[in-house]
Amino acid sequence: MAQVAWLDELNFISAQINMENEHQLQTEEFEREPVPASQWKSWKSFLGMYAGEHAAGTEFVIGPLFLTAGVSAFDLIVGLLLGNFLAVLSWRFLTAEIATKHRLTLYFQLEKICGKNLVTLYNLANGILFCFLAGSMITVSATAVGIPFNMQMPKLTDTLPNGSTWVVIVLVLGALFTFIAAKGFKTVSRAANFMSPVIVLGFLLAGIAALRQLGVSSFSDFWNIWGEGGEPYPGQIKYTFWHVVIWSWFCNAAMHIGMSDLSVFRYAKHANAGWTTAAGMYVGHYMAWIAAALLYAAYIRTPEAAAFIAEGHAPPVAPGPLAYNAIGVFGVLTVILAGWTTANPTIYRSGLAFQAILPKASTFWVTVIAGTLATIAGVFPAFAMKLLDFVAVYGFILAPVGAVIVFEHFFAEKFGVVKNYAEKSGIHFNMAVLLAWALSGGLFYFVSKSQEVFLSFLTLPAWVGCGVLYLVLSRIFQKKMIN
Question: For the whole model, what pTM was predicted?
């Protein structure tokens, strides 16, 4: 998801201010050319980056939401092992493989294939979705800030804000995060990388504290926390083993099979650097998710949670109180830092996507626009409370665009398709890409809604469908253009 690693990536792609040269912008990101060998980095440069990226604000929400979906011990523990491994394989054999062959950013590679105008449409979708993700992280931090004010926490089924205190806290946090993202990129980058170990430690300590509260003294006690699973809470669907596997595989679909991390791995000396994503999957998407689920398991045994259950309501999934219940003030600090270090780079990155659409606008003002949208989204707790669903939609929309790059890389010559057709033909809008993206996404989204199929189950079919359609339509359109 968009977290500490975005800061490292943005260090690669953002302009740096040279204070000794009359404040002129100096670029070292090789935005429109392959990264030269002198700038390649070893696998060690990516290890800590991915470990930090995937132990952040989103994890405080995702772990408890698994519990509300009624997962069993086997489904959660084994399902996450398998799903995260499939994600690592996707990064290694697709993203890193292609990145180290061409060494281009996602955006420049798409521009060569799709044309500048179609990439603008992709940037718009990317920017808006990042705003919603950043908004959910403002929500996460707000649940921690609201504790001293005795604020009513949003319930699992809440869509609208539940009071004026909530709105004020979200607006203040949103303004603060936006200002930092717009004005203090270098400070944010350094602080986030410094705070990453603190956040990981917070997850670990919170999980250990929750185990003690739950009276766990053996592996069988740990296993029995989830047992055979149960019925999902109101408004949630039942998660089985395959729900856990597929969702954990594709929650970062936009980054691996969607090729967003081409911008990161283009700096890798070898495609084997893709294996370093395992640090993120098994620190953040395994340890942190399970630790956060334990926090919720401990919380639902408290008298406060029992009162919600007695009234027929699901206990709220509020990261602030959950962490405070386990490790006190340090837990509150961890939640605030986790939400902050996730929201800031996400807002900044959303601003960069919007700047590609409005190239004459300053970075400051497009970031302010992105932060404003994120803050408005944060006022509505539904984005955080439905994070499992939102992340599934996010990956479903953006991942198929990556299939265009993957299928062209591996199959273009076999199908007689001209690579980088937009660049070679001079077109600004490759209709084959748009139709493949729209048709595959539209078809499988219709299947999801009409047949009530879990959307993440259809991410891979939509991705494959988009890739195949792109090759077929490219042959048709390119043949017409040539003739």
Answer: 0.85
